[in-house]
Amino acid sequence: MKKVAVVGAGVSGLSTAFYIEKFGGDNVSVTIFEKENVPGGKMLTVQKDGFIIETGPNGFLDNKPYTLDLVKDLKIEDRLYRSSDKARKRFVFVNGKLVRLPENPIAFLSSYVMSFKGKLRLAAEYFIPPKKDDSDESLSSFVKRRIGKEALEKLIDPMAAGIFAGDPDKLSVKAAFPAVWHLEKKYGGLIKGLLAMKKEKKDATAGPGGVLTSFKGGVKDLIDALVANIKGEIHPGTTVKKLIPENGKWKIVYEKDDEIFEESFDKVVLSTPSYVAAALVKNFDEKLAEKLYEIEYSPIAVIAFGFIKKGLGHNLDGFGFLVPRSEGRKILGVLWDSSVFPNRAPEGKALIRAMVGGARQPHLALAGKEEIARMTYKDIKRIMKIRHRPIMTAVFKHPKGIPHYTVGHVEKVNEIFKLASNHGGLFLNSNAYRGVGVNDCVYNSLKTAEMVTSE
Prior knowledge:
By secondary structure, this protein is of the alpha/beta class. It has helices at residues 11-24, 66-74, 105-110, 116-123, 139-146, 149-164, 173-176, 178-187, 190-199, 220-229, 274-281, 286-293, 337-340, 362-365, 369-384, 409-420, 438-454, and strands at residues 2-7, 28-33, 45-48, 51-54, 60-61, 80-82, 90-94, 97-100, 212-215, 233-235, 238-246, 249-256, 259-265, 267-270, 296-308, 320-322, 331-335, 349-357, 392-404, 426-428. It has a seven-stranded mixed beta sheet. The longest helix is centred in the C-terminal third of the chain and has 17 residues, at 438-454. It is globular and about 70 Å long.
């Protein structure tokens, strides 16, 4: 029987362990090490005063099958919770007011999101020639080149902040938005690509699509189901201190309850942030460690407010809104959680969550919790015309929250995986490499488990 260690019990680590056991059967034994006292990583759900609050992502999109397939394997389909129809209404804060994002070309023509000149520039994208080479470029460069500066400022910049908490001047279009990059490479342009895909009867979307889906008890339902279905041991509150290649195996030195232990494994999966993986491999591969350290992370703070719904001052009819940096606000965006998932707040109350920091203003996410709550409430009160003080406030800080896929990320990751392959039985899998969404994490976990069990 092969012994496999998985370091990290976030959704990537747990999914990897689950699939290793599924594919390996009685031929594998899995042990999971987790530094925190509870598994889940940044996918945690907190209950406070009757509110169900996500400290990180609030679900996944059902336009890809990976998480839904995992849910079926775990037999928790009855826990799935689709977002309300209100989630289709999304807004952006431009020119000092909330403007609904258009859902189709006709609505776009009458929308106030962009000026008439900006709309003409976007339409002219059809005639813009494609980039001649395959070299990477920033999201800003790509967008300005194809659809113009105004589209970047009012549409793409806030979207980049909402998904990656990222800076479009640094984000790699190839790594962060591969579907968009491939439209130009394959079809010669975005509009040409969308028209061709529609003709081919494919999903003609380049951005987020599908229905946002979560679980009745929050994303914790998925984490709990994974934990319940994994046969191997899970060691929470355990810090892996050293990873040592030794006689064709991997010795793990770990600390638990102030005691040091050692154990050998045939294979190791590092499902940790890249900087944690870097510290563990540094003693036997400095070049690999150096490359892992190069992956940047954006700090992010999530602020949840509970309000009395009656007389709030805003009807919360929609998903929420994003804020371009040109508006000069502190917040990146706001989710109207109790409108998207009605059970997130008690009867007669409303739950909203705001995001602060990111690559745009990292220092804001690192401020004290009281200061973060104060400045966030000040912004949402002005933008949403809120009349009430919150009856519940919760602040969750993630100093290294979301991997920031900067220009050259794809090539960097390819080199990282090539270097890692020189060490038999060593695998890397987390959201630092090939996708930050839940679907991406589950898919990459499945593929990693296939590699682990096929050797």
